[in-house]
Write a structure and sequence with these properties.
Number of helices: 10
Radius of gyration: 21 Å
Shape: globular
Strand content: under 5%
Largest sheet: none
Helix content: 40-55%
Order of helices and strands: HHHHHHHHHH
Structural class: mainly alpha
Number of strands: 0
Distance between the termini: 40 Å
Length: 205
């Protein structure tokens, strides 16, 4: 093979590599769907959301104004738990972090690749419910932290195809409300799907 012919093969290999990478991202070949991540404290969502009626924004206060939703400070946790179940084993762990002036070192569960930008505030302010991406997180830990505890699990693939499908087909407000356990009214059912841009620069910028 001549030098000239060798050089003509390189673009083909590059195109093949790019296609394979794109297909992998789109199909979710490397998806972490179903991943369970252990945490330093066995936090359970159900008692906080379903029993206490707490809004997601109480703990994840950046979700409607920042790309990253953030977590509650240990001081926020202890604001309630100085009085609520202070003797429980998991609350004692929280209190220990509080006493040392340290944040709880939570381990991230849902994460997109570094080259993808997912701005939480755009989705939250567009009316997308947390459960649309994170699954029915309000049910996590119904049984409590000490009985058959199941940590937070990545509910959806979060791969490119999954995201693009929602942007192209549209987000259905009624389905989002249903996942969140909210009442689905006729007016909500009648609302059209909300579509979004899906060109490359929407997420890769």
């Amino acid at each position: 093979m001549t030098v000239k012919k060798k050089w003509t093969v390189i673009p083909g290999f590059l195109a093949l590599a790019a296609a394979a990478t794109l297909l992998s991202a789109y199909s979710g070949a490397s998806s972490s769907q179903g991943l369970r991540v252990e945490q330093p404290v066995k936090f359970v969502h159900s008692p906080h959301v379903q029993k206490a009626g707490m809004n997601c924004l109480y703990c994840h206060s950046g979700a409607n104004k920042s790309p990253d939703p953030g977590n509650a400070s240990v001081a926020t946790c202890m604001g309630c738990h100085l009085l609520v179940k202070p003797g429980a084993p998991e609350i004692k762990k929280v209190a220990a972090f509080y006493a040392k002036g340290l944040p709880i070192p939570w381990n991230r569960v849902h994460k997109v690749p570094e080259y993808v930008h997912f701005p939480h505030m755009r989705h939250v302010n567009a009316g997308v419910t947390c459960q649309s991406c994170h699954g029915q997180i309000q049910n996590q830990g119904k049984q409590g932290p000490d009985t058959n505890y199941v940590p937070v699990t990545q509910a959806n693939s979060l791969n490119m195809g999954w995201c693009v499908n929602c942007h192209v087909q549209g987000y259905k407000p009624a389905e989002g409300a249903r996942l969140a356990g909210m009442p689905v009214t006729p007016a909500l059912e009648a609302m059209p799907a909300k579509k979004a841009r899906y060109d490359c620069s929407t997420c890769h910028y």
